[in-house]
Amino acid sequence: MFFLINLILLLALFCIILIISMLWPPDSPWAPWWTTKPHIARRMCQMAKVSDKTLIYDLGCGTGNAICIAASEFNAHSLGIEIDPIRFFNAWFNVNFRYRVGNKVKLLRKNFFKVNFSDANVFFIYLIPNALIRLAPKFLKEARSGSLLISYTYPIPMEYYPKRLKLMEIDHKNRLYLYKFS
Asked: What is the pTM of this model?
């Protein structure tokens, strides 16, 4: 009985944390647990003209929905980077069992600040403004000229990316911002 009560309390705590993470304030230093809906992922792929020659880096890939759709519907190759173990497991499950795109999608359970970005030609990001600012020096140093960056919901704070990043397209309806590195 004691075990059952502890299990119920643990599950309740997990549910509370999950709900709070979905409602996280946008200026928080921690990443909320928001997911990219399939129609948004498709639109991201269309905007970036994703194909079998594309290597997408999804920073904080969460459930991996965006890169799974890119692989299954657009034939792209992807690297999903996720530090949170629960989200990583969720992405791993989606890649290997739900979408079955393990041959095109690789996952790293790592801090994306410790991953070299120089191989990517497209970046998918659904990150809070503080993270976008903190990423600026890394992008300026490692992103290849001509690579694309698609930000969902939040525009890139351009003052942190001087002369290196150009806004190419905005999809106001879906809150997508496409940028190109020079």
From this structure: 0.84
Residues listed for the chain: 182
Q: What residues form DSSP beta bridges with 181?
A: 165
For residue 16, tell me if it sits in a domain. Answer: no
Per the CB < 8 A criterion, the answer to whether 151 and 125 are in contact is yes
DSSP, res 154: S
Please return the burial class of 173, using the count of CB atoms within 10 Å of its CB with bins 0-12, 13-18 and 19+: exposed
Per residue in 86-101, pLDDT tens? 889 999 999 999 999 9
What does residue 169 show for φ and ψ, rounded to 5 degrees?
Answer: -160, 145
11: phi then psi, degrees, rounded to nearest 5? -65, -40
Task: Confirm whether 8 is domain-assigned.
Answer: no
- If one counts the domains in the chain, the total is 1
17 found inside a domain? no
Domain hosting 66: range is 32-181
CA dist., res. 15 & res. 73, Å (int):
32
d(CA 72, CA 20): 31
Q: Are strands 105-108 and 165-171 parallel, antiparallel or unpaired?
A: unpaired
Q: Could you tell me which residues are beta bridge partners of residue 105? A: 78
Residue 24 has pLDDT above 70, yes or no: no
- Does some domain include residue 73? yes
